[in-house]
Amino acid sequence: MDWKNLPESGNVEDRRGGGGLPGGGLAIGGIGGLIIAVVALFFGIDPSVILGGGNSGQQTQPQTQTQTQGGQTQSGTKDESYQFVSRILGSTDQVWTGIFKQSDRQYTKPKLVLFSGGVQTACGQASSAVGPFYCPLDSKVYLDTGFFNTMQQRLGGGGDFAYAYVIAHEVGHHVQNELGIADQVERKQRAARSEAEANSYSVRLELQADCFAGVWGNKVRGSEAANLTQQDIREALSTASAIGDDTLQRAGQGRVVPDSFTHGSSQQRVNWFNKGFQSGNPNNCDTLNVPYNQL
């Protein structure tokens, strides 16, 4: 993937080097805690560190040069991680601006915050161990690029397009926020009669974000600037499979509990990414009106 040919974004905020957290936990809602705890166990992290805040002990390793404020290296140029994130975000901005324009809507571009160790957000505080996430209260994606190392070393997923898929998935949550889908799902979760039912709405939301990431991938594939290869696509599909709830639960606790799924199974995540990737049409990403057993 030739990401260096993609358009840059001016909406990357660099907070790396800020250290750990003074305490408190990320305000992610009750149903998100389980999958985060499972991921924590899989990574060998104490779940209370994530859910209760504090420094996870996992700091992003420096790139090739010392970081200074604003993502600038000592040589005065932005490092490769910053450039990669900026261009992937710029690409998602371009794609979704065009898609929204087709429906006579205006797309509000999200900001992406790079951090290391921990970060303060409008949704609360979080450590890097939570992984990439989107906060709808400030319309920002939060990312410690050290997660990409984790993907490669512990999840069996890696490669530039796979990393870009992760960013595009979080941007997919922003798209849901823009369209009012996130609020719709939240109301259904509050009215749910059981935790399993509430979890099912979370799965629908996550699979739609996977599909939206696929839509972005389709548009990028059609651009000569990105020069996607079959290997790139395989890497993204491998990543989607590696972060399925069933795969993470099996690795973390030795058994699978479908009622506790909050993101979808490996096969579901692959299928919905593929649905968006093959069609390039966000209208094919309606996970809310499909019978749950057919997702």
TrEMBL record:
Regions crossing the membrane:
20-43
Enumerate the InterPro entries for this protein: Uncharacterised_pept_Zn_put
Cellular component (GO) terms are:
membrane
Where does this protein reside within or beyond the cell? Membrane
- Source organism per entry reads Deinococcus gobiensis (strain DSM 21396 / JCM 16679 / CGMCC 1.7299 / I-0)
Task: Give the matching Pfam families.
Answer: Zn_peptidase
Q: Where is this region: Disordered?
A: 1-21, 54-77
Annotated protein name in UniProt:
Zinc metallopeptidase
Q: Which UniProt keywords apply?
A: Membrane, Transmembrane, Transmembrane helix
